[in-house]
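User: quick one, sequence for these tokens?
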């Protein structure tokens, strides 16, 4: 029987989240474009796609939302066209995934004037 590593015995959770500012309107309102960016981010993260959903919302605070459910958790982008703004949530589990590579794809695709990124290690399974 093969030996199990410490990584096999624990949750390896990596949660990257970001706000992006000053994005070109045409990118923010294009559901197909945002959906393709999320699909490319899934591949870059080395995640396994289960399903992807997307929708457009009209009105002053409208935009596009796309969420990819992956075996390792999820990748989501939400846009607000009138504010030239988008949020990104990349949460992956497993040592084999790379949320930073996924975020690089998103940054290149949206080319924001500014962005703010946060990261949380979600690996703890005990209250220490």
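Assistant:
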């Amino acid at each position: 029987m093969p030996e199990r590593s410490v990584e096999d015995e624990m949750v390896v959770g990596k949660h990257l989240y970001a706000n992006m500012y000053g994005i070109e309107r045409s990118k923010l309102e294009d559901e197909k474009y945002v959906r393709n960016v999320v699909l490319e981010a899934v591949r870059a993260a080395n995640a396994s796609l289960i399903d992807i959903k997307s929708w457009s919302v009209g009105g002053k605070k409208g935009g596009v939302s796309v969420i990819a459910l992956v075996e390792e958790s999820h990748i989501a982008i939400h846009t607000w066209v009138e504010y030239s703004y988008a949020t990104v949530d990349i949460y992956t589990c497993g040592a084999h995934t790379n949320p930073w590579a996924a975020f690089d794809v998103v940054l290149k695709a949206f080319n924001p004037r500014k962005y703010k990124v946060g990261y949380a290690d979600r690996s703890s399974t005990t209250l220490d």
